Amino acid sequence: MRVALAQTDCRLGDVAGNLADAERIIKESATEGADLVVFPELSLTGYALGQLADDISLWTDDPRLVDLSKHGPDVVIGMLEDGRIRRHNSALYLSDGRVVHNHRKLYLPNYLIWEERKHASPGQHMRAFDAAHARFATLICNDAWQPMLPWLAAQDGAEVLIVPTNSAAKLTAGSFDPAEYWHDLLTFTARMQQCWVIFVNRVGDEAGVRFWGGSRVIDPWGSAVATAPVWDESLTIVDIDPHSVRRRRREIPLLADARLGLLRRELERLINESGDD
């Protein structure tokens, strides 16, 4: 399976222009024999939604979206989804002119400069799904920082985790370095869930924030098999073997003894004790 990491710098609010750029990149990826092209989080709309006066959300059945997957490769692309009453930070998996899967971001950060809950509502489901080349799951940016979600995806059979991201460069004078955290997190996730991880981060400057890129693919042993440059737009092509996941999980069966009943009982206890539903 050949994957294209489309590390782009989108223009805030310019949906038509970003769609045109995406189509160009997909066509270029097709000439490289790509089976899948992955774009960053909110790549069609931009991130700083609070700076826009107009509603630029898109319906999932917008024909411009499904047309993106008619050039050969499957496509994962991020947008602000029009959910009628609510809006969602969503990533669509498109294939052969149809929406195979829609993941709505589950954990919307509201700290430092991030105010995602002002502009989007959290999703309610996390599901693995089958496409032509593998069984996938999508986790948008901060979703991947929640330890239970990659594990749930793997328990649902995901062989490849797709992580579209808008990660900014270092924001404070302290020791928190997002790039370093992402490196450790992606390596840990791939090793412990024994799966491929496709991380695609954006680049460029927007609303006083600079995004660093550094997109990469991690194999089920935790090794980076491809890494995009920092700061600059790029198209990185890499071949992966989803079948190696089964081999790795057979070598060391970390996921086989999940004891889901035990987890259900303890989660129910914690819910009852905390009132958090």
List the helices and strands and how they pair.
Elements (H helix, E strand, L loop, with lengths): L1 E6 L7 H17 L4 E3 L24 H5 L6 E10 L2 E10 L2 E7 L24 E2 L4 E4 L9 H8 L4 E6 L12 H16 L2 E6 L1 E4 L2 E4 L3 E3 L5 E4 L6 E6 L4 H8 L8 H15 L3
Parallel strand pairs: 1-2, 2-3, 7-8, 8-9
Antiparallel strand pairs: 1-14, 3-4, 4-5, 6-7, 9-12, 10-11, 12-13
Looking at this protein, list some descriptive labels.
277 residues; alpha/beta; Nitrilase/N-carbamoyl-D-aminoacid amidohydrolase; six-stranded mixed β-sheet
Account of the 3D structure:
It is a single chain. This protein has 277 residues and is of the alpha/beta class. It has a single domain (2-274), classed as Nitrilase/N-carbamoyl-D-aminoacid amidohydrolase. The protein is built from six helices and 14 strands. It has helices at 15-31, 63-67, 148-155, 178-193, 244-251, 260-274; strands at 2-7, 36-38, 74-83, 86-95, 98-104, 129-130, 135-138, 160-165, 196-201, 203-206, 209-212, 216-218, 224-227, 234-239. The chain has a six-stranded mixed sheet. It has a six-stranded mixed sheet with strand order 6-7-8-9-12-13, covered by helices on one side. A two-stranded antiparallel ribbon has the order 10-11. The chain is globular. The relative contact order is 0.15. The mean pLDDT is 95.
Mean pLDDT: 95
In one word, what is the shape?
Answer: globular
Q: Quickly name the level 1 CATH class.
A: Alpha Beta
Low-confidence stretches: none
% residues in beta strands: 25-35%
CATH superfamily: Carbon-nitrogen hydrolase
How many structural domains can be distinguished in the coordinates?
1
* N- and C-termini, Cα separation: 39 Å
Organism: Amycolatopsis antarctica
Pfam family, one: CN_hydrolase
GO molecular function: N-carbamoylputrescine amidase activity
GO biological process, one term: putrescine biosynthetic process from arginine
